[in-house]
Fold this sequence. Notes:
This protein is of the alpha/beta class. It is 32% helix and 24% strand. The chain has 16 helices and 28 strands. The protein has an eight-stranded mixed β-sheet with strand order 8-7-6-3-2-1-22-23. A seven-stranded mixed β-sheet has the order 9-10-11-12-13-20-21. It has a six-stranded parallel β-sheet with strand order 16-15-17-14-18-19, sandwiched between helices. Helix 15 (492-507) runs antiparallel to helix 16 (514-533). The longest helix has 20 residues, at 514-533.
Amino acid sequence: MTPKNNELIFCALGGSGEIGMNVVLYGTAGKWLMVDCGVTFADAGYPGIDLILPDLQFIEERAADLVGIVLTHGHEDHIGALPYLAEDLGVPLYATAFTAGLVRGKLEEEGIERRVKLRIVKEGEPLQLGPFACTWVPVSHSIPEANAITIETEAGRVFHTGDWKLDPAPVIGKPATVEQLTAIGDTGVDVLVCDSTNVFNLEASGSESSVREGLAEVVARSKGRVLVTTFASNAARLHTLGQVARDTGRQLCVTGRSLDRILRVAKATGYLLDFPDTIDPDTAMKLPAGKVLIVATGGQGEPRAALGRVAEGTHPISLGKGDTVIFSSKQIPGNEVAIGRIQNILAGKGVEMVTERQAHVHVSGHPGRPELADMYRWIRPKVLIPVHGEMRHMQEQARFGAAEGIAQTLVQTDGDIVRLLPGPAKKIGNAAVGRLVLDGDVILPADGATINERRKIAVNGQVSVAVAIGKDGRLLGRPEVKVQGLPVEEDRAAFVADASDAAAEAARGGKRAVDRVREDVRLAVRKIATRWTGKKPIVDVLLIQA
């Protein structure tokens, strides 16, 4: 597909129909522009995997016509795939200073900072990238320098919100005013591509500045150590916690590599310059319990993050009876089980826990319905394209937008190619989409042979059989059987003996092709395993010919 001069094409390769992994393409006049390139996080369906990346095959095949990648903000679900995928695309990345600082650190970790061009842009200043004129418009969110982007082409004009909210009293940054957003609407916006995450919230998300009082109240009434877990990237919340530490007379300990990175980049770009001096975990543990406030990552239940290691007792910080953990973040859908596991471990230690349900310790970074309605009224788009949400979120925003008077709404999902302009927006095709996984240092298809085999082993276990046969086809000795993950427990020896007998019987019978013998042994051993356990394990056969 080559976009025509008079048309504007939209295609999400991630982030539509799912939470995270946001990547969007716009096409016009034979060229393409990418907005964001993020990751999502793996669940139990991906054993051994932490990060899931978007499959960019569609645009990789058109990389010669890609003019650049523009970035709305620095959250992992918007920039996390860049160190693994950007080099292959071969185009510059464009971001404001804070976001660029986070991206640069990622590129350096992968050793590709010299091979990927990273260019800093200024909010409010247009940037021409081929047929696309892009302008970064500051918005409130839970990270510094979050931006919407206006994308102007000969075919029409888009306002791409990125992640946003309305904050009447922001702690960090200066978002666009009502007058500025209204002025954008006055110039004419054809399409609003809009965050759907909190569309079911009937109330506005609230101001970051309101969280300080709630956090201070909880910390002040706590007698022991207090640990606050929040998203590392929420620099505004870090600022608030610095103030709370001063308000309550506690010294601040920040633990977690991602938190250190955010603090470093924030200070380098002019934020958090009045953040209090911090102490290390060892010093924190030597202070009286009521004199320390700890900030840690891991509020989404990540086992290797700081809070998970504190709960498991493998971190220098230890908590017990009389201590408090404040979850100053919202549960991401899908993380409930992991969060509950850590909370149960902490509860078993006698730790008190406080979430947004018990006290005002968090506000969301995404717009509720009143904020969406305001944005519709200011921008006044002809078409609404919901993104950044599962299907239920996007369908609901489409209904809400229509009820608020937007003439056309269109719900798409990853891979749908949509002609936004001219005429009514409509789906015109499909792009190849999918998921990749970062497995150690290797990128693999999410549903390829390796991950599928791992799933099968995780579900059904694995049996290895070694069989030796002579040149005349006769069995030499007794087959060796090893078992992993099969539910035989105290009957393991009896099962192994039974499986070995079955393998021996299958290997006998005179000369046959090696592959035939191997398959007969495999099927015979799997049949025994199924009879014993009801499982159908992976059976690997090593055939040795003497």
